């Protein structure tokens, strides 16, 4: 009976999780401008579901015709209202009033979609936007987001706050680096252990180091007197180069207390 109840609870939990994931994807598209057909919305929702599952991020596609706010700020605030400050997410926003399309990133997606990758994604989207094929533009956005997440955070990645100029660098270990470090640690530990045993020929549980016979203490009295002290300061010039050993950078800004990345263009 207890086993049956446990199985029933597990099944209910799995069904609840599936329902929550399905609901998350189903509310990812907010087509206020009616640029997409019902079938296209369904296809995009199906494409969003696995991307959200593997990125642990929310993906939004938003359109409207009546926005008077700066397009980038609108996309930021939209995501801020949906998921909160600095949570993982990406928004593709089509502003039909100002004829702009925007990609806004938040949380760890700022690092996966750095400036270069954003520009490449906008390059892929732009022809479809100019031809009025908004469904294809949304598909290109999703395909690029999925592809770049699979590529991982670029080596030598850093963030640049466009408002303060502050640069924050990140070190992301690759799977290969982790495996090499783990194997090296095991090998070195084994070598050290073997050498120690061979050198001292220790017998576990019976050996005792004769610390009294082999130790000594020699105390010497010494007085130090501070005569004077000098402090020298100099200005270190800022390195204006944004290069990072082949790594990619993400420009960030603040909206509503949250940090966002991304980019956009007119069409």
UniProtKB/TrEMBL annotation:
Transmembrane segments: 178-198
Keywords linked to the UniProt accession: Membrane, Signal, Transmembrane, Transmembrane helix
Pfam families the record matches: TPM_phosphatase
Signal peptide residues on this chain, from the entry's feature table: 1-24
Biased composition (Gly residues): 243-267
InterPro entries hit by this protein: TPM_dom (IPR007621)
Ranges where the record places region Disordered: 235-267
Domain of life: Bacteria
Positions of the TPM domain: 30-144
Protein name per Swiss-Prot or TrEMBL: TPM domain-containing protein
Native species: Enterococcus rotai
């Amino acid at each position: 009976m207890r086993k049956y109840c446990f199985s029933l609870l597990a099944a209910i939990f799995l069904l609840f999780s599936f329902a929550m994931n399905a609901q998350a994807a189903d509310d990812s598209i907010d087509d206020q401008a009616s640029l997409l057909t019902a079938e296209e919305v369904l296809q995009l929702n199906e494409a969003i579901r696995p991307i959200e599952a593997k990125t642990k991020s929310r993906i939004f596609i938003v359109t409207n015709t009546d926005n008077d706010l700066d397009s980038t700020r609108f996309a930021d605030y939209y995501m801020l209202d949906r998921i909160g400050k600095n949570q993982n997410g990406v928004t593709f926003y089509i502003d039909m009033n100002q004829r702009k399309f925007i990609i806004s990133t938040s949380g760890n997606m700022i690092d996966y979609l750095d400036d270069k990758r954003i520009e490449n994604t906008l390059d892929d989207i732009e022809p479809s936007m100019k031809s009025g094929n908004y469904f294809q533009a949304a598909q290109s956005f999703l395909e690029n987001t999925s592809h770049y997440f699979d590529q991982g955070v670029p080596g030598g990645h850093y963030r640049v706050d466009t408002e303060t100029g502050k640069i924050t660098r990140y070190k992301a270990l690759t799977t290969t680096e982790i495996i090499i470090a783990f194997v090296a640690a095991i090998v070195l530990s084994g070598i050290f252990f073997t050498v120690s045993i061979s050198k001292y020929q220790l017998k576990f549980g019976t050996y005792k180091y004769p610390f009294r016979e082999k130790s000594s203490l020699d105390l010497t009295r010494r007085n130090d007197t501070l005569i004077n002290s000098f402090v020298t300061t100099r200005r270190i010039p800022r390195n204006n180069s944004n290069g990072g050993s082949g790594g990619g950078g993400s420009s960030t800004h603040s909206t509503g207390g949250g940090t966002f990345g991304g980019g956009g263009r007119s069409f």
